[in-house]
Amino acid sequence: MAFQTVLTYCDGAMGSGFLMRRFTMSFLVSTGLAVATPSWSDVSLSVLGSDGDLRATLLAVSRLAELENPAAATGQEVLAAARADYSRLVAALYEQGYFGPEVSIRINGREAANISPFQSLTQHSDIEIFVDPGRAFTLGRADIAPIAPGTDLPEGFVTGARAGTPVLRQTAEAGISGWRDVGHGIAEISRQSITARQDDAELDVEITLAPGPVLTFGQLVPEGQQRMRPDAIGRIAGLPHGGQFSPAELDRAAERLRDTGAFSSVAFTELPPGPNDVMDIGATVVEAPLRRIGFGAEVSSDDGVGLSAYWVHRNLFGGAERLRLDAEVSGLGGESGGFDGLLSAIYTRPATFSPDTDLSFGVSLEHLDEVTYTEDSFEIYSALDHQFSERLSGSLGVTFAYSEIEDAFSRREETVFSLPGDLVWDSRDSDLDASRGWYLEGGLTPFASLTGGGAGARLTFDTRTYLGIGQENRTRFAARFQGGTLEGGDITTLPPDWLFFSGGAGTVRGQSYQSLGALQNGVDTGGRSYLGGSFELRQDLFGNFGAVGFVDTGFISADTGWSGDGEWHSGAGLGVRYDTAIGPIRLDVATQVGGDTAGDDFFLYIGIGHAF
Question: Using CA atoms, how far apart are residues 151 and 173, in angstroms rounded to an integer?
């Protein structure tokens, strides 16, 4: 015998997603089955009067449909999946705006809801799901109040729009977030009335919010730390004690702690407000391992092998102070120049002067053996790095550099004092493999030679943009435009690595490393101006593999400001990428474009990470 029942219940005002629910389910009542060996067939799902999209949605949430091999499942497994499917299917129908559905699940002709869970089920061959979704509901009355100024409610929360539980949840969440954004940290739903009018297929919704008082930040209360000092955690987090509550300030404080690298996990908890509406914040942290070591390698058929290694201590004195040691060698087995080497050490103290400002001190020793010069240098520097916003950062430093130089001009010693500064805007969706966004970097370094080489300034810029298209951004376009110019200074005495060259993996692939420079006073050396452009088409293939096609071009001028005569060169090629957790492994093959020798020589580049 078949009968129909209507179930209605109302969840209380907890959070933002609890609704009065009304649904209709069909049941077939019959006697029990008790046999010994189960035998299952495929699960069938029928949706009355529906297109394939709704059926696909229901199949995706059905526990019965998830059974990989129904024939091998036990009776208890199938019955448990069937019982779970009633609520799962109804919830999915609510999401799609069907608030008067009928759902029937039959096992060998019997309604699953009426079969005892203690009963053995065997000798059955049919599992049938029948769904009558009914009419799709629209919103009748759609009210939420009071709402804070500037609250951005979902566009679909209006009379006549398609109803569904997602838009109701999003509306309640938006209302609460709006109040929290203006300081009401314990805003909540005080009442909600949701009524399904079956005859009109309309859903009336009335949500009442309770903003609560405006809160101010109290103390940050850390726990879980082992080596970090609690006062240092508070200083780095930078919550504005006594300032108005703000979710954005909470997110930024947590991000500051993560950015130090001293923690593998940071979680904030809003504690109950105390007297005078002051809210303390609990911070549960898990410290990362104190030390880290890493290695890198790049191979170029022209510039040879480059190897690098680093060692990092993340928490020297209990305040997330970082010490990093680097060692690099390059030009091993290369055809351009000789051996290059670098040793450096840098100490960084976070949250100096302000929570968003880091202070660093560094020292480095470098040897360069290039085609047109050799240089040995010693450098000491200090810098302040400031995070202005989530995307904008900048730095300002002071540097003293001593160099011993040998080139076509002379063999000499040079000491330069400089004030390097730069700004970076980064809106990329990923540092490793971006599919949208921009990266903009500009640097200005005023300098003065302390050994008679004059004074001036060096300007550089680097602009990158990314665009993904197609399903899951499997096809991506990447473009880069970079350049620089050098004003002032005596060309015969300045360190030659302050000048500009083009060619190689970082500028123009397919051209020999630093093969394009300029004539200065009749001597072949670097130029005072540089422009470069690169374009890549990146395509995912299968698994972790992808392919890249690219074109690079570069310009060098002997004059400042990209004026006067100069020369261009270009290169193009194809590459393969293999994605890893630390970035894609890159293999590129390129040749020069244009000129009498175009296509004669091919250059191979291997490294980690995209070219830009």
Answer: 11
Helix (H) or strand (E) holding 312: strand 304-313
109 in Cβ contact with 125 (< 8 Å): no
Q: Nearest to residue 303, comparing CAs of 333, 282, 275, 283?
A: 333
pLDDT for 448-496, tens place per residue? 999 988 999 999 999 999 999 988 899 999 999 999 999 999 988 889 9
Condensed to tens digits (0 to 9), the pLDDT of residues 149-184 reads 999 999 999 999 999 999 999 999 999 999 999 999
In 3D space, the residue among 38, 29, 30, 25 whose CA is nearest the CA of residue 129 turns out to be 25
**CB burial of residue 301 (10 Å; 0-12, 13-18, 19+):** middle
What tokens does 384 get? Answer: 């302040």
For residue 550, give the nearest of 490, 606, 500, 480 by alpha carbon.
480
Of the candidates 137, 109, 134, 133, which has an alpha carbon nearest to the alpha carbon of residue 123? Answer: 109
SS3 563: coil
- Do 192 and 206 meet the contact criterion of CB atoms below 8 Å apart? yes
- Closest alpha carbon to 536 in 473, 591, 463, 611: 611
- Nearest Cα to Cα of residue 289 among 259, 258, 312: 312
pTM (2 d.p.): 0.79
